[in-house]
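Submission sheet (multi-component)
Chains listed below:
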Amino acid sequence: MNKELHIVVCVKIVPKPEDVTLKEDNTLDRANAESVINPPDKNAVETAVSLKERYGGKVTAISMGPPFFDDFMRLIMAMGVDDAILLSDRAFAGADTYPTTLTLAAGIKKLGDVDLVICGEESSDGGTGNVPPGIAEWLGWTQATYCHEIDYDEIQSRFVVKRSVSTGYEVISIPKPAVVSVELGVNSPRFPNFYLKQEYDQSYKVTIWDAKALNLDPETVGLKGSHTTVDSLKSSKGKERKKQFIVGSPKEIAEKLATIILENM
Ligand SMILES: Cc1cc2nc3c(=O)[nH]c(=O)nc-3n(C[C@H](O)[C@H](O)[C@H](O)COP(=O)(O)OP(=O)(O)OC[C@H]3O[C@@H](n4cnc5c(N)ncnc54)[C@H](O)[C@@H]3O)c2cc1C
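Outcome: structure written.
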């Protein structure tokens, strides 16, 4: 009899891209920014919950961030997730991907008995895409990134994933436990059930683990454990688009269009 699956989904809460600014010490200024669930992480949650509905088991959401993330964790639970863990400690602040992956891997190890970790392909603020493979590296697990579909072969106890490659797709079979990332838009994430959210707001306490609970040396996490710092953030002005209305008969419009295209080649 196959053991029920335990799937962990990594969810990052990000400042709305248009609100991203930097503080004096070059860490992100979240105070004035509206926060949202990182878009591809909603696809990761939907993938995890669908797998659970097909093969049984449970889904745990995990996030590293400041205490106010807990309300988002209950929102994610209202999408069909069973449990939520928040890794939160002032020592975790300002982390680059090295300590971020160390901390998330420590949280997943502490959870124990995990078969699959599902992440989004990248975050909308840092956008490095380093975290999924980084977590796999700390755990010594197999990884598959930029996945389109994830299925479970119950007979082989292996995951079958379809992932994008430069020449199209590849379908690979990977052993348990594994870390995967899913691409933005691979599915239509279900809406949170707001009655459930209200219920969780009343009754569900998000488990919070700090550096001590994770047995992590504060010197190895957050800004102290980082090898990179973001020096500055410059917003690039998009190219000014020229609008030109072409009038005339369809034949005249086609001729003018051909001339413009040829002139700009
Ligand atoms: C503008 C900018 C540039 C940056 N450049 C770098 C850089 O070059 N190198 C570097 O090491 N750091 C960099 N950072 C810091 C980096 O953003 C943070 O370390 C961040 O916590 C993790 O990296 P990411 O956002 O790139 O995640 P990604 O690797 O892009 O995220 C992929 C997936 O990992 C999961 N994930 C990521 N963060 C968390 C979290 N906190 N909790 C739960 N799941 C998570 C989510 O599923 C997410 O979809 C940068 C930050 C900013 C704002």
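Remark: The mean pLDDT is 92.
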